[in-house]
Structure formats: structure tokens, C-alpha cells
Amino acid sequence: METARIYLEKHAAGDPLIKASPEKGLKYIVVIPSYLETRLTESLVSLFEADLPPHPVEVIIIINWPENENPENIRLSREAFISASKWAKAKSTNKLRFHTIEAGFFPVKKAGVGYARKTGMDEAVRRFIQAGQEDGIIISFDADSKCEKNYFTAIDAHFSINNQTDGCSVYFEHELAGDEFPEIVYEAITQYELHMRTYLHGVRYTGFPNAFYTVGSSMVVRASSYCRQGGMNVRKAGEDFYFLQKFFDLGRFTDLKETIVYPSPRPSLRVPFGTGKAITERIKETTSMKSYNPATYDVLRHFFSAHKELNTDRKVKLDQIISGCHPCLQEFLLKINFRKDLQEINNNSGNLENFSKRFYRYFNMFRILKFANYARTTFPDLSVAECAIGIMKRCGLNPTEKMVEKEMLLAFRKRDKND
Questions:
Q1: Do residues 119 and 125 make contact, with C-beta atoms less than 8 angstroms apart?
Q2: What is the three-class DSSP state of 147?
Q3: pLDDT at 349 over 90
Q4: Angstrom distance (rounded) from CA 294 to CA 381
Q5: What is the pTM of this model?
Q6: Cβ atoms 157, 52 nearer than 8 A
Q7: CB atoms < 10 A from the CB of 168, how many?
Q8: Does residue 416 contact residue 171 with C-beta atoms inside 8 Å?
Q9: CA–CA distance from 117 to each of 40, 105, 149 (Å)?
Q10: Domain limits, the chain
């Protein structure tokens, strides 16, 4: 518990938010950031109807807005707080307790989903300390998402079986049909999720060992690991991607495939990028969504396959390996000062196993994404369908010529669910 206390002293987002003492044995806390949400109660109902694990669960809802928010949105937010608070009071039990927090006026420079998640996650750490729980689990969810009935029991089983894991990515599926949104929204989310899965399978095809999805509503981490890694960042978008990189690098992150989270496919302009922004942009376009050219992954696959040979201080050997890379990658390695960094990796690696771990902590998901963007001038983006077909062939999914985008997505989903 000392690590958690030190973390809060140095990095806590603010003061304690919940006065009531936690239940004895509290082990799971769901954190939900909420800003101008219209589906919050639906998400809470989904959690309420889920089967409960043996240990008590809490749900912390952080209703927030920036300090420069207009009066009408503040009014709507406070109405949402009052409504959610009444619902939470009526539904809370000793086994599943809901806490609705009016976090209010976040500083403009910090206001956003990252700071809201951090506020709730830091409060979760406090609750675990109060409960004397050294192995508490922080569950990240969204105010417009839903879950399967076995959501909590699957998480409980996963962390019991994988007792060394620092965290996991929960399997997810966006809604691809329905009456809530226009058809064009479902077409857009089909393309966007296909892009997400094509990209991740492309990264896995390269041989990179720590490739996982980074979806804010589908990530779960141990509170102890959360504190050791410095907590959540305060980015206004992409906070999940940057947050989880720290866990991927440890090599003890896992996939949870026994339940499902259903994020909303709705459009949104509240964040500078991410699913909501991507869907908003997609419905304005008349052409298919683009994705990274499969040739990009081929270049990295060749490079990663020879990475162990980089564990040397022989300049001639290094020259030979790097000169054997695609010119585009050679340029990128020069741009990021790879040789200097590689020397440091070698100097701090006592054996080949340690070298590989350090190498992939350096050339991680963040640098892979940077290279994919850099390589666009050499390998122009293609339609997401073309890219999906290319990656499916490389991954042994055997696509057919007549496959449409939804069928490709379902094939990737099946692979993700069953592998």
C-alpha cells in the first residue's frame, strides 16, 4: 500500500471525492468519465444488470466540464448529475455501489477525458487504500458503452487465472446496425473498426510481441501497477493509447476475450481525434476510409525478424543490417537517431533476452505508429478494404474476392475472439 500512498502524494489529481467508507473486501472499481452524455443511465443499467463477482464493486462516475463551459451546457451537466445521483442512490447495494461525482470546472488546459479518467482512477486508488485492498482492479468504462452480462465475473476470473498480469484489454465490438443512428453512421463505424483491427493485425504480423487494442472503454489495470506506472495522463484525446504503452512495455499485459464491451458508434466533435471524431469525418466523405498500406508492415516484419542481430557493437555488422532495410526505414532510423539509442540499449543489456525486451520497449507501438505515418509518402494509404484484404492474406485468413467490409470485419473479430 505504500506505493499507492506515495503515488497519491506526488501525482493525485485532487482531494478525496467520496466521504462514505468503502465496503470491506472491495476489489473492483469502474471509472466512467461523463461530459454532456445522453446515454449515461443506459450504461449504468448495463453494469447494474451484470452478474457480480465474489468481491464488492464500486462505480465512480466523474461528471465534468471545462471552466469556460457555456451556461447551457453547465445546466445540462448538472441535470445529468442530479438524475444519475438519484438513480445511483436507488440502485446501490453493499455488493455494487454507485458514486456520482460532480467534478465540475476542470481547468481549460486539462479539461478532457484524460483528466476525467485520472480523477476517477486516483479516487479508486484512495478507495482501495481505505479498504485495505492491495490487489484492487481499476476498470475503465465509458458513459456511452454497454457490456455483456458476464462482464464482472469474466474480469474476476481473468485476473485470478492471470495473477501476474498488470492489466488487460477487454474484447470489444461496436454496434454495426440498429435504429438509434442513421445507416451512414453504422457504415462509418464498420469502416473505422475494420481499420482498427487491420492495423493491429498488421502490427502483429510484423512480429512485434506487445500489440494490443487501446480502447478507453475496454481497459483494465491493477491499481498497484497503475501507481507504479505514474497513473493516467491528462491528454484530451488518445489518453488510452499513451496510458497503455507503459503497461505493454512491461510485457505482462493480456487480452480478455471471455466477455464483450460495446462502445457506441456515435459521431462526436468533443475530442480532436478518436472514434467519435473519425465517425463525424467519415459521414462527410463520399469515398471509402483509408488505412496504412500493407507494404508498411512488410518492411517492419523484415526489420524485426533480424532485430537480434543488432545485439552487437560491431559497426560493420550494424551497417550491413541497416543497409539491408528498406530505404524508407533507413531514413526513419536516421531521423530518430536509432544508432545512438541502439548503443545505449546494447550497453544496458546483459544478454540477448534482455536486449530483445529493451529493443521492443524502444521500438514500441508508439514508434511503430510514427513509422507508419512517416512511410505514407513511400507507401500511400489504400482503401480500408484493400488494406484489410492484404493483411488477411498475410495472416492466413483466406479472404474471398467478393468479401464486403462487414464480412472482413467479422473475420477479424472471429480471429480476435478465438485466437
A1: no
A2: strand
A3: yes
A4: 9
A5: 0.93
A6: no
A7: 23
A8: yes
A9: 15, 15, 24
A10: 2-162+214-259, 294-377
Q: What is the SS3 string spanning 38-107?
A: CCHHHHHHHHHCCCCCCCCEEEEEEEEEECCCCHHHHHHHHHHHHHHHHHHHHHCCCCEEEEEEEEEEEC
Please give the Cα distance from 334 to 316 (Å, whole number).
Answer: 17
Q: Are 261 and 291 in contact (CB under 8 A)?
A: no
Which residue pairs from 369-376 have beta carbons closer than 8 angstroms and sit at least 24 positions apart in sequence?
A: 370/332, 370/336, 371/296, 371/300, 371/329, 371/332, 372/199, 372/292, 372/296, 374/328, 374/331, 374/332, 374/335, 375/292, 375/293, 375/296, 375/299, 375/328, 375/329, 375/332, 376/292, 376/293
CA–CA distance, 27 with 96 (Å, rounded to integer): 11
C-alpha–C-alpha distance, residues 65 and 80, integer Å: 12
**Lowest-confidence region among 18-32, 80-94, 183-197, 303-317:** 303-317
Q: Which of the listed CATH numbers 2.40.128, 3.30.379, 2.60.120, 3.90.550 matches domain 2-162+214-259?
A: 3.90.550
198, 385 contact by CB (below 8 A):
no
Of 211, 410, 181, residue with least CA distance to 276? 181
Question: Band of the pLDDT at 110, cuts 50, 70, 90?
Answer: confident
DSSP state, 237?
S
Nearest CA to 59 out of 150, 140, 151, 156 is that of 140
What's the pLDDT score for residue 286?
Answer: 58
Q: What is the mean pLDDT of residues 143-166?
A: 97
Across the range 150-166, mean pLDDT stands at 97
Distance separating alpha carbons of residues 117 and 366, to the nearest angstrom? 21
Tell me how far apart the alpha carbons of residues 283 and 127 are, in angstroms, rounded to a whole number.
Answer: 42
For 188-197, what is each residue's pLDDT tens digit?
899 999 999 9
- Region of residue 70 (left: phi > 0; alpha: psi -120 to 50; beta: else): beta
| Beta pairing partners, 42 | none
**Which pLDDT belongs to residue 131?**
96
* Mean model confidence pLDDT for the chain: 92
- The closest of 299, 344, 304 to 326, measured between CA atoms, is 299
Confidence at residue 284, expressed as pLDDT on a 0 to 100 scale: 57
The residues facing 222 across adjacent strands are: 137
How far apart, in whole angstroms, are the C-alpha atoms of residue 34 and residue 36? 7
Can you name the residues that pair with 31 across neighbouring β-strands? 60, 140
One-letter amino acid identity for 254? T
